[in-house]
Design a protein that fits this description.
Blueprint: H1 2-18, E1 30-34, H2 41-57, E2 61-65, H3 72-79, E3 87-92, H4 93-102, E4 113-129, H5 137-146, E5 152-155, H6 161-173, E6 178-181, H7 185-193, E7 199-203, H8 204-212, E8 216-221, E9 247-255, H9 260-274, H10 277-285, E10 289-290, H11 295-316
Parallel strand pairs: 1-2, 1-3, 5-6, 5-7
Antiparallel strand pairs: 3-9, 4-7, 4-8, 4-9, 4-10
């Protein structure tokens, strides 16, 4: 009898020790760090997907905005978090692809992140304040060349895809302009609404409301084809700017070391959210395409993006401290 009891105790102890630490996950709220200010695409999609994921996972998903330094502040906060699945990040093309070749030093490396899934990919759009006297890309090029004091452009921050897209545009038209960076797309949009600079190449979701309301004039989109949301707006190629196809993307990442079973659970919850009719419809309204890829597919995609943007940064001879 004693032997039987000892055997049961030993088996129970072994199961407790060998069982996954994540068996009860999640048993408390989950935080998604957004490395940008409220109101931009990163923030918008994090809130949309986070709410849906929370219902599937049975826990509240809290959005925490940590803007600044081209997404570096928020990304650094993520990699310092415990790899337990309770702190995630809404990664994007800036901090998770462009920054590696743009900055001499970073407080994180690509190995510090674990890919979960792509959430959305969107084209960028070249916009001006509707009061600016230009109605086409060609007219903007002329306007910049003839008005030295108006050679300015804004962006959601140094190193983000809007910044690099504008730099690429200036290279293509063989001009220079002063960059005015903001701490996120929301503040950058407000800046253009206030005519604080001349043009911006923004992620489409951040500017589409201002375009639809007539406050911004869209001159071109950076996708391979026209946006369903802006059928009358030409692509950069149609507007006379060759080799200017750029798409921004946003996806969930976790600190390296987060258990695979938790990552897979999050990916499945995100994928479920991204296939729900209201999310698909909302993303379409924003001009974006939903993701949902596996962690392995998203990791491969990020690797490809890092190489693509490294080529762009080196060709532009850009370097930041």
């Amino acid at each position: 009898m004693n032997m039987t009891l000892r055997l049961i105790a030993a088996v129970t102890a072994a199961l407790l020790c060998s069982g996954p630490a994540s068996a009860a996950w999640p048993d408390k709220p989950i935080t998604i760090i957004v490395p940008a200010a409220p109101g931009g695409t990163t923030d918008i999609v994090a809130r949309l997907v986070g709410e849906k994921m929370g219902k599937t996972l049975g826990q509240t998903v809290v959005i925490e905005n940590k803007a600044g330094a081209a997404g570096i502040i928020g990304s650094q906060a993520l990699v310092r978090s415990k790899p337990d699945g309770y702190t995630l990040g809404m990664g994007n093309v800036g901090p998770n692809a462009i920054n590696y070749s743009l900055y001499k030093t970073l407080p994180y490396k690509k190995e510090d992140f674990k890919a979960i899934t792509l959430v959305i990919s969107v084209p960028n759009v070249l916009v001006v304040n509707s009061e600016t006297p230009v109605k086409s890309v060609a007219e903007l090029v002329t306007y910049l060349s003839e008005n030295e004091d108006r050679r300015t452009f804004g962006s959601s921050g140094k190193g983000q895809s809007p910044h690099l897209s504008a730099e690429m545009f200036l290279q293509r038209i063989k001009q220079t302009a002063q960059h005015i960076p903001y701490k996120g797309a929301g503040p950058a949009v407000s800046g253009l609404l206030g005519n604080q600079y001349t043009f911006m190449i923004d992620n489409l979701p951040s500017s589409i409301a201002s375009i639809k309301s007539g406050k911004f004039r869209a001159l071109a989109v950076t996708g391979e084809k026209r946006s369903d949301q802006l059928p009358d707006v030409p692509t950069m190629k149609e507007a006379g700017i060759d080799n200017m196809v750029v798409n921004a993307w946003f996806g969930l990442v976790a600190p390296a070391g987060t258990p695979d079973e938790i990552v897979n659970t999050i990916q499945q919850a995100a994928r479920k959210a991204l296939h729900e009719e209201d999310i698909v419809s909302r993303f379409h309204t924003l001009g974006g395409t939903p993701g949902g890829e596996t962690p392995q597919e998203f990791a491969s995609f990020i690797d490809d993006q890092q190489k693509l943007w490294a080529d762009t940064v080196h060709a532009a001879d850009l370097q930041m401290q």
